[in-house]
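Reading a protein record of the kind used here takes little practice once its layout is understood. An example of such a record is reproduced below.
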Amino acid sequence: MFKIRHPIPGEPPGALRLRHESPKTASVITLIDYDQTHLEERVISEPSELLGHLYNKRVTWINIDGLGDLDVLRVLGERFHLHPLALEDVLETGQRPKAEQYDDYLFIIAQMLYLDAKKQMCGEQVSMFLGKRFLITLQEEADFDVFDPVRARIRSSSGRIRKAGPDYLAYALLDSIVDRYYPVLESIGSAIEEIEDEQVEKPMKQSARSLHQYKRTLTQIRRYVWPTRDVMSSLLHEETGFVRPETRVFLRDCYDHTVQLMDLVESYRDVLSGLMEIYLSSVSIRTNEIMRVLTVISSVFIPLTFIAGVYGMNFVPEFNGRRLPLNMPELYHPLGYIGCLLLMLGVAIFQIVYFKKRGWL
């Protein structure tokens, strides 16, 4: 899910090329052009069809699903004067969320996380070019995104989105991305609670492995949420006019959400660290219990082994008709075997009773 990709050493800056792991599918271009009274939504087959929407007075949202067509990126770069370094960052997915200022637009990168139909965590990079009258968004894949609620608001003309500019649209998309982090973290929180119950009842190696995996996942999510907070802060203090003052109020609310997400991530990380300590303590206690039982068993059998060893030496009481002193007459006693067993049983019972009284059992 989390991808870390690096440029090829020695490659010139701004070079547009597909990586080996990049999808080779064609890009799908969707245009949504709107204002308070007008709405146009359609799929664009040729990038040249966008020329008529560059300088109108409406908000133009161009969404590109899939990064497999470099020609589309080159045409967009020429038509909208997008810097080659920014386009290179679009292709180098796994970037740190950031907001960069250029002459004619703001370049924003965000990391989108969501749960698919199988409740599996998925993620991809979303790149945005925010201009005075346009917003271009580029996504890695076309299967799913978190922007459907925003599209529904545009189609239904509900709220203020049809009255506002592209900066408010960019806020709405960023807010949708940030809000989708909550279900992801809630699923992790539920899994952590289940592991916590398992740890209390019976610690297992599988639980420890799951704890480690979730800790790594939270670490990666923290790498996304922390810079996203910085992105919101930079947009709040942006002074070039791409973000209007009335939109900054909403960005402040989105900034608060990123702070809440950071608190959730940190609290879950603390819980995982505590659970790992509980697991190690439980394993240590269980090992000590086992060792105590084994030690008691060994302590009981040590004198019994000594007695059995003594009577297993089989010294004879007579030699050449002469009685030997200090012999072992009980070896030939009719009840010698029974007596020896009773002696060992008595010693074992005495030891067990003694251990009980001392609290060792």
User: Anything to note?
Assistant: The CA atoms of residues 192 and 272 lie 7 Å apart. The chain has eight helices and nine strands. The radius of gyration is 37 Å. The chain has a mean pLDDT of 83.
